[in-house]
Amino acid sequence: MSKKKFNDLISKKVVLVDGATGTEFIKRGMPQGISPELWALENLDAVHEIHNSYIDAGSDIVYIPSFGGNRIKLEEFGLADRLYEMNSSLAKAVRENIAGRALAFGDLAPTGRFVEPFGDLGFKDAVNIYKEQVKALLDGGVDGFAIETMMDIQETRAAVLAVKETCDLPIIVSMTFEENTRTLTGNDPLSALITLQALRVDAFGCNCSSGPKDMIELIKTIKPYAKIPLLTKPNAGMPKLIDGKTVFDMGADEFATYVEELVAAGANIIGGCCGTTPEHINAQANAARDLKAVMPQVKAVSAISAPHANCLLGQEQPFKVIGERINPTGKKKLQAELRDGKFGIVRQYAGEQLAGGAAILDVNMGLSGIDEKTMMLETISLLAQGTALPLCIDSTDSEVIEAALRLYPGRALVNSISAEKDRLEKTLPIAAKYGAMFILLPLNDEGIPETADERIALAKEIFAEAQKYGYEREDIVLDALIMTVASNQSAANVSLDLIEWASRELKVSSVCGLSNVSFGMPERKWINAAFLGMAMGRGLNMAIANPSSEMLMSLIAGGDVLSGRDQKIHRYLDKFSAIKQKTQRSKKEILDPAQRVFNCVVEGHDDSISDAVIAALASGIQAKAIVDDCLIPAINKVGDLYDCKKYFLPQLIMGADTMRKAFEVLEPLLAEDQDKPAEKAVIIMATVEGDIHDIGKNIVTLMLRNYGFEVVDLGKDVSAAKIINAVKKHKARIVGLSALMTTTMINMEEVVKLAKEEGLFSLKIMIGGAVVDKNYAEQIGADAYAADAMESVRLAKRFTE
Amino acid sequence: MKDKVMINFINNIPLPIPEKKIYSRLGHNRHLTEMSDAQRKKVDAAIAQGVSLCRLRAVWGRFEINKWSAERVEFGDGDVFESTKLAKLLEGCKSLVLFALTAGADIVDRTSELSGQGDGVGALACDAAGSEMVDAAAEWLQQYLKQQFKRGNETLTKRRFSPGYGDLELENQAILFKLLDIEKLGVKLTDDFLMIPEKTVTAIAGIKKIN
Q: pTM score, two decimals?
């Protein structure tokens, strides 16, 4: 069946697919623990009977029972060598039986393995595994393919590509969404729709996991963005466990009551999954007979997607910043890391740009001395897992773009396609194959045209070429090609004209590499900011920039208010209302320097304590008075708040940390007042031998230091001998030991014993850790047990008084 | 009928951030703790950094139980767990599933680095994020396996068990390492049977027929 015929069918009526197959097999005697595909092949009469009932009930399409017919699933039953025979014979038999009364779709379903980059099954291998099944089904004879019950977008993409690269038959895809409206691997329906309709599947929707009621909401949510028909195959209600059996107990009549709402929500194809029977489908068919399906409302959707999130573009959407930092050009540290095959900075940049407010991450791996393709693929794997943001694939090499788009588990934005011969002939068809959006760069092999009119002519030429591949306005973003005003002051105006033309005439999104405008100028940020404001006024709605610039992001927030992209001004108010409160409070704090020092410690403002102390000194308060009247009362208050549980551990540490910073400023002044500085008591800290869990010990160490003790931290997995040697060497008065495991806490006793053997009778030993307590401390002869960091401090004070 | 043991690796487990659990691991008390906006912002940022450094990877495999008694369970190719408590959990199960999950080395390295720099809040938040992310990943994996086994009319025991719990000696980690090839996740087992990086868990659960 051609895709066109399939679409004709959809446009005429609400199309009915079949209901459950597995439960029908069990009813007809299929035992547990065997391959359902093998059972089907050996019981073709049962298969025909089920299909005949569904066709009589009204199914326009039935699924060939090849659900688990891929190599990986069949291998579990030792049947992989029969793959071709089983799939082709099933297809042939089903098609012969239905003899044109309905359409027979080959059924592809999960392999049960996780596909690269989310698992160890290579993407290429996954595509080949599905291709093998697709070819066998095609040889038997099918009218199309149903890829169903998918829970991972990457495996779904592999199955879709397998079909697309083997034949031109219709593909309908349904994924299985849990109660939280995501698949078990976290894919959400809208991102999945964006990804799969870009790959030009012929219908998308959901099956299994939920009943018809939940699917109504799901379909409603994605319908406005669907340029393809939508499909639902709900279960007969939600599963209930009755007498240890999973039961779907929604009857056919009740099941059919949801049809009207499903169709109104936007479902074009309906059927049933677990627990549904020919009666359910018949009831659905009757309910749908006079209903008119809602055809897709949009021809194209300006959106890109990642596995777990998406980004909607367009003039009515918020201004989007494409984070520019994952690009080695001009970044020596990143270059060195990439040359060593390391990705630490890439991860760091991804995190920082997300936190800064980027909507998309640009990825460019163009660097001499590295294999761009390999590094691009590694980065995509890393970012597909490490960030929620969709990616912009930035390369001049069509091979790199192809490899990247093939692996990327979403719909990417390609940066970029120009009128250069190579880009039009090679990159454009590749972008089209994977349905990627692209940045249109109005330049050609002769270079960048100087005037806006020339650039407009080139943009039209590229867009016309792209339309031949099915591209619409919504699928492209025009690059305004901003050049520096340092060499040509009219450059900014040319780009502004281009932006205006893109938004008002061509009606596409526009973007620019913002900082290019100020290249070679001093204090570039002012030029960048001024240009951004002017460009937003002309319709610019995207920029490739560094989102860590607070000024830039604030300008954008303001621009979105003025351009109406921030509807009801919610985002702006969210962003800035906290700052307003902070400013008011700061004013109050400035009035009283001593109070300000006190507040800094209590609230843990370690970044402003130095200024507060200096201000207090400047106002005439003596160093000793700051300690006695501000810092000590403040840290005692922090301790009290912690004791009554109003503060938790991070706040306690913040307070102590702030106090330490205050002392750093005051110490030289305090020393001037004393003839001889007091000697600090030394404490040895260690996690005992055999144990590597040292976070508790580290926190206690930090707290003790913040309270003015000198701490020698010996680290983790430290032997008793080493600890005692350190005690002698540093003349320590206290030892603090930690252990997290029952198997290692026994080594604490070794330390206590050795201390006694060595005659260190005045040494105080305190212990702590999840598995020890006061009794254990007494049992091994330790001096004390500290339940937490605060108690350690108190004990240390007591021991040194 | 199923006759092949397949070891499955998962490179990335998608999880919503278990923020409440991370806070409560840090000692936050929903009813009592009071935080200023600045304090919350600081802790939130530290947690976000910790979460971003967790790379949740897992491996799992299913093995047939060959012999069961109240004290020992023999499975796969003759491997044995000796533990009355584990045997009780696996009572009536035809198979068991072994799995391992890790948050990777980055989060642990960063925690040490922050401790070394004196950033206690950062270190604590990273540590808590690592622990809670691994725990949440274990919950996710159990849910995923349940879904996988559902089609075969099977389900997973509600509870899971790990070497070092109750009377199942820690030494049994070696069996899981051998059968699941856990080193492929970048996790090493020390001579004392500790797993490095430390934000790693292993577990055993039973597979039951639904009927």
A: 0.83
